[in-house]
Amino acid sequence: MIPLSVLDLAPVPQGADAATALRNTLDLARRAEALGFRRYWLAEHHNMPGVASAATAVIVGAVADATRTIRVGAGGIMLPNHAPLVVAEQFSTLAALHPGRVDLGLGRAPGTDQRTARALRRDLDAADDFVGDVQEIQGWFGPVEPGAPDRAIPAPGTDVPLWILGSSLYGAQVAAHLGLPYAFASHFAPDHLDAAFAVYRDRFRPSPAQPRPHAMAGATVVAADTDAEARRLFTSVQQQFLNMRRGRPGRLPPPVDDMDAVWTPFEKAGVAHALSCAIVGGPETVRDGLAAFVARTRADELMVTCNVFDHAARLRSYEILAAVRDRMPMAA
Question: S-S: 56 plus which of 31, 44, 67, 170, CB 3.0-4.6 Å?
């Protein structure tokens, strides 16, 4: 079976606060490490009451402190919001504190609305120079040029693998051109997954950082002891997506028994499309879903997210997923 990793948005359940969500993140990270997941990434979002991972680099450091061996990182840092120098300083510092364990995923979207993007004090056109920003970070991480007046501290010579994140063909082209690993956000934007992977693999140019293409696909996985219980837990995710489509993002809602009492048929179709890469069910259903998704994508790695309302049920979902992974045949 291909490696599995964890993507965490530090979800804030209804009736709880951000402090609770962050404690849950540290607890899940320790459990993910014990279960043999490869990476634990945090995602940057702003002005979202249900997401506590806005200060992404800070939380990455806390997760690294709370664990010992699992790779930690950002999936990702949204470059339009940040000066490349600051990103290089933050992640080279993390790497100095936790050598050989830090990843840096870079995205082109702002991860928020335009009003909040302005509050972040970055140019709203910054996304247009995404490639230049990525190359600037590579430059800060590289050796210091003779006579160079500026440097990121402690960045020169830092070993932090860069990943390009995306949900369209653009990110695939950038990752292929720069010779970097690529992660596709199919857990919420599945439309261009197959085409993006094809472009990335076909156009990949080997680099010292990445001699061959490495493609990671995102998937929501909600596992429980039975299919019925997993489907009920999944209604929290469905409601969360529905609320965002209605323009009312909020904290993660508790599960409900009947989603048809919550949404319209049109809304149901839209949410189902956005979550079409989700794998939901008991152990056997999850095993079959994983096998089908891997066969379809030929992904080198899966990045799994699971926004379950009850923390114990969320831990249980990852435990079941790890057990399923361990019973599946190794990839050829």
Answer: 44
How would you classify the pairing of strands 215-223 and 39-42? unpaired
Rg for the chain, CA atoms, rounded? 19
Q: Which residue type does 88 have?
A: A
More confident residue, 39 or 149: 39
Domains, the chain, in order of start with CATH, read 1-160 (3.20.20.30), 219-332 (no CATH)
Q: What is the pLDDT, as a whole number, of residue 332?
A: 41
Averaged pLDDT, 60-86: 95
CA distances (Å), 168 to each of 45, 159, 240, in order?
19, 28, 23
Q: What distance in Å separates the CA atoms of residue 103 and residue 216, rounded to the nearest whole number?
A: 14
DSSP for 230-277 reads: HHHHHHHHHHHHHHHHTT---SBPPP-S-GGGTS-HHHHHHHHHHTTT
Q: How confident is the model at residue 72 (pLDDT cuts 50, 70, 90)?
A: very high
User: Mean pLDDT score of the chain, rounded to an integer?
Assistant: 93
Angstrom distance (rounded) from CA 157 to CA 150:
15
- CA distances to 135, 136, 162, 218, 305 from 187, rounded to whole Å, are 27, 29, 21, 5, 8
Say if residues 39 and 73 touch (Cβ distance below 8 Å).
yes
